[in-house]
Design a protein that fits this description.
Blueprint: H1 10-20, E1 47-50, H2 53-61, E2 68-71, E3 74-77, E4 80-86, E5 93-97, E6 103-108, E7 110-116, E8 118-121, E9 124-129, E10 134-137, E11 146-147, E12 150-152, E13 155-157, E14 169-173, E15 179-181, E16 184-186, E17 195-197, E18 210-212, E19 215-216, E20 230-232, E21 245-247, E22 250-252, E23 259-264, E24 269-271, E25 274-276, E26 280-286, E27 291-293, E28 296-298, E29 305-310, E30 316-318, E31 321-323, E32 334-337, E33 355-357, E34 360-362, E35 366-371, E36 384-387, E37 390-392, E38 399-402, E39 409-412, E40 414-417, E41 428-430, E42 435-437, E43 443-445, E44 486-489, E45 492-493, H3 495-501, E46 508-511, E47 514-518, E48 522-524, E49 527-531, E50 538-542, E51 548-550, E52 555-559, E53 562-564, E54 575-579, E55 588-593, E56 596-600, E57 607-610, E58 617-623, E59 626-630, E60 635-637, E61 649-655, E62 658-662, E63 667-670, E64 682-686, E65 689-693, E66 705-708, E67 712-716, E68 719-721, E69 726-730, E70 736-740, E71 743-745, E72 751-754
Parallel strand pairs: 1-2, 2-5, 3-6, 4-7, 5-8, 6-9, 7-10, 7-11, 8-12, 9-13, 10-14, 12-15, 13-16, 14-17, 15-18, 16-19, 17-20, 18-21, 19-22, 20-23, 21-24, 22-25, 23-26, 24-27, 25-28, 26-29, 27-30, 28-31, 29-32, 30-33, 31-34, 32-35, 33-36, 34-37, 35-38, 36-39, 37-40, 40-41, 44-46, 45-47, ...
Antiparallel strand pairs: 42-43
Bound molecules: calcium ion.
Length: about 750
């Protein structure tokens, strides 16, 4: 270990040399060193650079208050780190890195903390996943917890278990008085809350943790429950106080599921956070006496962006700014729930003694009072107040929904502009308001008489740059299909295969006019665009069971070409595009335009798109295209048969396309179960022509389009001839099904079956 002394500052070096003679015992001898570490007198700090796992463990074992353990630059693979030590308030023990961003923890790795007054900084977890339930745990075992411990400037980047529904957690806070700040958490794609605060034993209750200045980066749609970004408590301990402060964090596109933050305990504070284009809400799900103030929600018109949802007693929500939020129902800009009388601990407690004041809700679609009212949730809000709020709509849907008796909410001094129907006749004035943008980037009424309403002039939008680790880049919002080069390809045998094999992410493969034959399955490990010269000019035939296979991380855009399935094997179950047969972590996109697919009828059950279970498309678009003679489904998204609320695609759009002689369905979309944690699936099916669809005896649904559990379905302006009916089965939540202006010729009426609880 003496070799590490070279890295000490001169001051340390002198201090250590002066005291080296006092060394009496060899404290720690590393495997490759004969030299003992000099003992330092009281008051000296030992800075110990460790180069491997053994040295790390020795250094932790011998750590004294004030010590600094420095991990050497490099990749530390398969390392289950345990940092269990006793620092003091004046002299914490620090675990840090030689250079920030240059110590990578990869493979099967994690970090467990136990003891007192520890500081961890500078680690980057990537290219691996935790073998246990957590990546960072503030406990070593059920009884050995960390207290007064700080984790700062640590990165966890796509550190996901490769099995999408193998549940784990990136950060679990236990103990008391811990701080988690300036960390960067990005791309949690498998099931499980990104970060949770646990209150499961007395040692973790009344914890006074602080979670601040973190960058909660994009969390893709999970397509199931279990995609929350932050949870504090659980329903079981929800009447216990947590006293956790969540402030000045940036939530960037945290889209995992309906709850971005789920507070399930008492006396938490959520202050000064930004929720940027994040789908879902900050939900006060369980627990009392929580405070939500000075937060900024920026929806920018993105679907399902929400604000906060209020349940329980003595909640205070004030001085929050909500702009451009499109969410509805439980996902609205401001949602006050109905409760269950004498509610069990895991259901909905009535809203009581709560205050909602001085919030600005601008250009947001939905505010809901008494949301969820039904025979079970029959207890409306009581002894609560709603005052000094501003609701301004210039282009939004401006709906204020009232679902039960709201006389238990005292409305006073609120002003609305551009809202068609106000929930009460007094306490909510309707007037035309002009907004001006202030230097802080927020909009305020120009009328000085309204200065006391809405958010204060001093509210600021947290700067993203002040969150996370300054030395670790935050992701941009570029399309996965952009930023690549164009590869020009001539017609011929496997010229397309070769071009894709040599492509990089975002590339465009441009096919000249002519005939292409493909003898191998074309693997798509990244996003790629394949563009022909027109569906009447560029023709592809292929000999394998599928033409394209989307691997984990892949996406495909097809444009202006034709595919003929005539050379596919004479065996059932062929496809044009399929996902890998295994679970996929990354959500993929499939975009098809101005293309033609014919002769997909070699043997039975030949689909255009065939997916495996536990794969998820964030977006499927088919437009201006033609499908003729298909023995299976065009789009089959029906692989999640366990009825656990899991499904295979979020947005499916089919527009202005023609389908003729399809044996099974044009679209079969299945989402089973009764869980309400997801927004999708969504289908937009419009302007299409369907002729002779769904009559194959293997078509179990006996429908031309079969939708089960789809949350938003719009079927407009389609023409169906000599086809089986459209069948919609509504099963969960508040599904929105719009079936308008479809022309049915020799086709039975659309069937909508409702099994919603
Ligand atoms: Ca949930």
């Amino acid at each position: 270990m003496i070799k590490n002394i070279a890295k000490f500052s001169q001051i340390f070096l002198v201090a250590l040399l002066l005291t080296a003679c006092k060394a009496e015992t060899a404290q720690a001898v590393s495997s490759d060193s004969e030299v003992s570490k000099p003992e330092t007198p009281h008051g000296e700090v030992t800075k110990d650079t460790v180069v491997d796992q053994n040295e790390f463990n020795e250094a932790v074992k011998n750590a004294k208050p004030g010590d600094i353990i420095v991990m050497k630059n490099g990749v530390w693979n398969d390392f289950e780190m345990v940092f269990d030590a006793q620092g003091t308030k004046e002299k914490p023990i620090t675990l840090t890195v030689e250079e920030k961003g240059k110590v990578i923890i990869s493979g099967q790795s994690n970090l467990r903390l136990a003891g007192e007054h520890l500081i961890v900084s500078g680690l980057v977890f990537k290219n691996g996943y935790t073998p246990t339930k957590e990546v960072i745990s503030f406990r070593r075992s059920k009884t050995e917890l960390a207290n007064n411990t700080r984790v700062t400037e640590v990165v966890i980047d796509h550190f996901n278990n490769p099995e999408r529904f193998e549940r784990d957690f990136w950060v679990m806070m236990y103990g008391k008085n811990n701080r988690f700040d300036h960390n960067h958490l990005e791309g949690k794609s498998n099931a499980g809350v990104t970060m949770a605060v646990r209150l499961n034993t007395e040692e973790s209750q009344n914890n006074h943790h602080r979670i601040d200045h973190n960058y909660f980066g994009p969390r893709p749609i999970l397509g199931s429950n279990g995609g929350e970004t932050l949870r504090i408590g659980t329903s079981h301990f929800s009447l216990t106080d947590s006293y956790t402060v969540v402030e000045n964090n940036y939530f960037d596109r945290c889209n995992g599921e309906v709850e971005i933050v789920s507070s399930k305990s008492g006396r938490n504070t959520f202050r000064g956070n930004v929720f940027f284009e994040s789908q879902g809400t900050l939900t006060l799900r369980h627990g009392n006496d929580n405070l939500i103030e000075n937060n900024v929600f920026l929806g920018n018109g993105v679907p399902h962006t929400g604000g906060f949802r209020v349940i329980n007693k003595r909640q205070t929500i004030r001085n929050n700014y909500m702009h451009g939020l499109k969410g509805y129902r439980f996902g609205g800009a401001l949602v006050v729930m109905n409760g269950v009388p004498n509610s069990p601990i895991n259901r909905y407690h009535q809203v009581e003694d709560s205050i909602i004041e001085n919030n600005s809700i601008i250009d947001s679609d939905h505010i809901e009072f008494g949301a969820g009212a039904d025979s079970e949730r029959s207890a409306p809000p009581i002894t609560s107040s709603f005052k000094n709020n501003l609701v301004i709509n210039r282009s939004a849907k401006d709906s204020i929904g009232v679902h039960d008796d709201i006389s238990g909410i005292a409305f006073s001094n609120n002003v609305a502009s551009g809202v068609t129907k106000l929930p009460v006749s007094t306490g909510f004035a309707d007037q035309s308001i002009k907004l001006v943008k202030a230097a802080n980037g927020l909009e305020y009424p120009s009328d000085p008489a309204l200065a006391e309403l809405g958010v204060s002039k001093s509210l600021t939008i947290l700067d993203k740059k002040l969150t996370g680790a300054s030395w670790y880049a935050k992701p941009d919002n570029a399309s996965r299909f952009s930023g690549g080069k164009t590869i020009k390809v001539k017609a011929g045998e496997d010229t397309l295969t070769q071009a894709v094999a040599e492509s990089s992410p975002g590339d465009v493969v441009e096919l000249a006019a002519g005939n292409y034959s493909v003898s191998k399955i074309i693997q798509l490990p990244h996003a790629i665009t394949i563009r022909g010269s027109g569906s009447d000019k560029t023709l592809i035939k292929y000999d394998r069971t599928t033409l394209f296979e989307i691997a984990d991380g892949g996406s495909l855009k097809l444009d202006s070409l034709s595919v003929d399935g005539v050379d596919a094997p004479d065996a059932y179950g062929n496809s044009v595009v399929r996902t890998t047969r295994y679970s996929m972590l990354s959500n993929y996109e499939l975009l098809v335009s101005d293309s033609k697919f014919i002769d997909l009828d070699k043997n039975h059950s030949f689909n255009f798109l065939k997916v495996a279970s536990h794969t998820f498309a964030s977006n499927i678009v088919i437009e201006n295209s033609e499908f003729k003679d298909v023995s299976g489904h065009v789009i089959a998204l029906e692989r999640e048969i366990d009825d656990l609320g899991i499904y295979n695609a979020e947005y499916i759009t089919v527009k202005n396309s023609r389908f003729e002689n399809v044996g099974k369905t044009v679209a079969n979309i299945y989402r089973g179960g009764t869980d309400e944690s997801t927004f999708g699936p969504h289908l937009d099916f419009s302007g299409n022509t369907l002729i002779n669809i769904g009559k194959n005896k293997r078509n179990k649904s006996k429908a031309s389009i079969f939708l089960q559990g789809v949350q938003v379905a719009s079927l407009k302006n389609n023409e169906l001839k000599e086809s089986t009916p459209i069948t919609v089965v509504e099963t969960v939540g508040d599904p929105i099904t719009t079936v308008v202006n479809n022309k049915l010729v020799s086709t039975p009426e659309t069937s909508i079956k409702v099994f919603v609880k």
